[in-house]
Amino acid sequence: MGTRFAPELPRYVGIARGGMHLHLSEHTGDARPGTLVYLYVGDVDAMAAACGISEVDDMEWGRDFEVTDPDGNRLRVGTSKTAI
Fold this sequence. Notes:
This protein is mostly beta strands. It has 1 helix and 6 strands. The model has no long low-confidence stretch (mean pLDDT 83).
């Protein structure tokens, strides 16, 4: 997945949903393997479904789920209970 603007360049992908944009790249120095990005959203269940996730974790403070790429980078998406 992602685009290479030339064969020797790292991959890049941009994800957009509802006016929000997340840009991901393999460029050296952008982030190290194991990085975590946490996104707060209004509808965590809809985002989980869009990511193919069927189970959202319930905690005292809110609800969230996590996806991990092959390099161990994590994207966690959640909604606080005050937003529900």
